[in-house]
Design a protein that fits this description.
This protein has 149 residues and is mostly helical. It folds into two domains: 7-65; 91-144, no CATH class. 62% of the residues lie in helices and 0% in strands. The chain contains six helices and no strands. It has helices spanning 12-22, 27-34, 38-45, 52-90, 94-109, 123-133. It is elongated and about 70 Å long.
Length: 149
């Protein structure tokens, strides 16, 4: 059995093997990218292979980095939502409130929502929005989407 190594002990090609494995590449793809044979790559990344400990270390660090990034993005999105909601509470223009609600829906649904402005809502819009949001047939009415004047 080969001597196991840490991330700091890897040469550039071995580090590339670890990185590509983390990205889900197959042994053949890793071999092609690094110039190693596929058999040697399999041996390196096997459960008790030379790079197994280094891979676990890399995986732990990358997963933590992703969690940290996700946490920062979540915090940023919450901060933005607070600003939008605070603006909604103090603005008297119903069209501003409707546009802000539309922006929130766009972000939640991950696609643009075609929201008509004050007085232009029809039943087809409300039906589509109910479907997009997963509401029951009679749970929302036009009044739920009409700005207070």
């Amino acid at each position: 059995m080969s001597q196991k190594v840490t991330l700091e002990q890897l040469n550039n090609k071995e580090l590339e093997v670890v990185r590509l494995k983390y990205l889900g590449k197959k042994s053949g793809e890793i071999a092609e990218a690094t110039g190693y044979t596929e058999q040697y790559v399999r041996k390196l990344i096997a459960r008790h292979g030379r790079l197994s400990d280094a891979y676990e270390e890399y995986e732990t660090k990358e997963n933590q980095r992703k969690r940290n990034r996700a946490s920062r993005l979540l915090t940023q999105n919450v901060d933005n939502a607070v600003i939008v909601i605070a603006s909604l509470l103090v603005d008297v223009d119903p069209n501003v409130k409707l546009r802000a609600a539309r922006e929130i829906l766009d972000r939640v649904l991950g696609k643009p929502v075609q929201v008509a402005l004050q007085g232009d809502m029809d039943q087809s819009f409300i039906d589509q929005l109910k479907k997009d949001l997963g509401f029951d047939e009679d749970s929302l009415t036009e009044a739920d989407f009409t700005p207070d004047v």
